[in-house]
Design brief:
single chain; 397 residues; mainly alpha; Citrate Synthase, domain 1; 2 domains; 3-stranded antiparallel beta sheet
Length: 397
């Protein structure tokens, strides 16, 4: 039963408005881009189960799917790859902007700044036609790897350095790794990275995606919407959990010379102590999934392939120990960030760059939502229920 209040000046009761904090359970709009299928507990992109896409498709094809609604033909995929290749080099103006920032700032600040610069310099920045929006989405998706790769490199150099030029014979995931580390990645590494990008690409009306749609609803440009989405993703209640997972592993202690079983036991003890102290352990639970994040099994397979490739069995021990202890104590399952964190660590990425990697994937979903919002736009402007003091007069007025 709804609580009641009294209409001012009368004794007539009225129903109080229902407040959904955090918009929990509120259906704000329709979308054809993705959904969680509750019957199978699976995530669908344009109707396709994401594990199937991760098993069979390059990242470029999944980006095309999110933007257009269909998987590309062979010719369409080739054309998209060629357009991606044309924008892989780090823009000198973006490099200059990044070099002006302290290496102590969070990489999310750097990426947000880079997107603003790219938007200011984009020749179609103010053109919101469908063709221009699609072109900007493609450009931004292929520009971000150069930004993130350079950001890791300049931090390791403790200041300005030289970016690594792209290589056209490499696909999107391979080239991203090449521009970061200056080495052509092993197939196991490139494939695990490709899988992670696909799994992170889209996830319905999450906080950052909804932010992008709110900004788009004001008829602001695409880069403004993405910049706002990055700001939302920076918050620890939305992004950052994959980085936090590695902080947990570091706190437990990563010991490459120990066995998986030894690491597993230490992780179990750590988790039991953390839960007894009521610590918040990141990488577990999800607001949408009630029976476990459907993306986790696919990402864990990619992590296991990375572990087999690198021989780092102790990381799997830490992973399994924490997961099992949490399941036994709380019945809470891991989310995508949990296997992604150690996988990115094994690839060689520094932990502060993990959430920018999330951006490099999710930009495809964000821009798909920008285009969908613009196609059937209505200004997003919810109401609030006032709970302050009633009207009063200024003294002496």
């Amino acid at each position: 039963m709804s609580p009641t209040t009294t209409t001012p000046g009368t004794s007539e009761p009225t129903s109080a408005p229902e407040i959904r904090k955090g918009l929990n359970g509120v259906i704000a709009d329709v979308s054809a881009i993705s959904k969680v299928n509750p019957e199978t507990n699976s995530l669908l992109y344009r109707g396709y189960p994401v594990p199937q896409l991760a098993a069979t498709q390059p990242f470029e094809a999944v980006a095309h799917l999110l933007w257009s609604g269909e998987l590309p033909s062979a010719d369409e995929l080739t054309a998209l790859e060629e357009r991606f290749h044309a924008h892989r080099t780090l823009d000198p103006a973006v490099k200059q902007a990044l070099d002006s920032l302290p290496v102590t700032c969070h990489p999310m600040d750097s990426v947000r700044t880079a997107v603003s610069v790219l938007g200011a310099r984009d020749p179609e920045a103010e053109d919101s036609s469908p063709a221009a929006e699609r072109a900007k989405a493609e450009r931004l998706t292929t520009q971000l790897p150069a930004v993130i790769a350079y950001e890791q490199r300049r931090r390791r150099a403790d200041g300005p350095t030289q970016p690594i030029p792209p290589r056209d014979e490499l696909d999107h995931a391979e080239n991203f790794l090449w521009m970061t580390f200056g080495e052509v990645p092993a197939p196991e590494v490139a494939d695990a990275f490709r899988v992670s990008l696909i799994l992170y690409a889209e996830h319905s009306f999450n906080a950052s995606t909804f932010t992008a749609r709110v900004i788009t609803s004001t008829l602001a440009d695409l880069h403004s919407a993405v910049t706002g989405a990055i700001g939302a993703l920076k918050g620890p209640l939305h992004g950052g959990a994959n980085e936090a997972v590695m902080h947990t592993f570091d706190e437990i202690g990563i010991r490459p010379d120990e066995s998986a079983e030894e690491a597993k036991e230490r992780a179990r003890v750590w988790m039991e102590d953390a839960l007894a102290q009521k610590k918040k352990v990141m990488g577990f639970g999800h607001r949408v999934y009630k029976n476990g994040d459907s993306r986790v099994p696919t990402m864990k397979q990619a992590l296991e392939a990375m572990i087999a490739h690198t021989g780092r069995e102790e990381l799997l021990g830490l992973y399994d120990g924490l997961e099992q202890a949490m399941e036994e104590a709380k019945g809470i399952k891991p989310n995508l960030d949990y296997p992604a964190g150690p996988a990115y660590h094994l690839m060689g990425f520094d932990a502060p760059l993990f959430t920018p990697l999330f951006i490099a994937a999710r930009v495809t979903g964000w821009t798909a939502h920008v285009m969908e919002q613009r196609a059937a736009n209505a200004l997003i402007r919810p109401l609030s229920a006032y709970n302050g003091v009633e009207e009063r007069q200024v003294p002496g007025a």
